[in-house]
Amino acid sequence: MTQEERWTTRYNEVRSFIETNHRNPSKYAPEEKLLVHFLKRGRKLMNAGELKEPRLGMFMELMELSEKYKRTNQYV
């Protein structure tokens, strides 16, 4: 599996998680930690200007979706 395939797979996992659960992944839930790490690392690369197209566009869409559920409690 190439790095591009791994990135796309993780992107799809995070996107489907947010769309299904209507919240962002929790850093406290062990099964969601990889998803949180993906978002955190992506933000860090984006802010540093190291995230290139087409990943940048895809990640920006994910950030918009993530922002929609920014303050949603996981227990609601």
Mean pLDDT: 93
- The H/E string reads HHH
Uncertain stretches of 5 or more adjacent residues: none
Number of strands: 0
Q: Quick one: overall form?
A: globular
Task: Give the strand content.
Answer: under 5%
Helicity range: 55-70%
**How would you classify the helix and strand content by structural class?**
mainly alpha
Q: N- to C-terminal separation?
A: 37 Å
* SS field, number of helical segments: 3
Describe the structure concisely.
This protein has helices at 3-21, 33-48, 55-68. It is mainly α and 76 residues long.
Write up what this structure looks like:
The protein has a domain at 29-70. The protein is 64% helix and 0% strand. It has helices at 3-21, 33-48, 55-68. α1 (3-21) packs parallel to α3 (55-68). The longest helix has 19 residues, at 3-21. The chain is globular and about 35 Å long. The N and C termini lie far apart (37 Å). The model has no long low-confidence stretch (mean pLDDT 93).
Describe the structure using short key phrases:
76 residues; 0% strand
List the helices and strands and how they pair.
Layout: H1 3-21, H2 33-48, H3 55-68
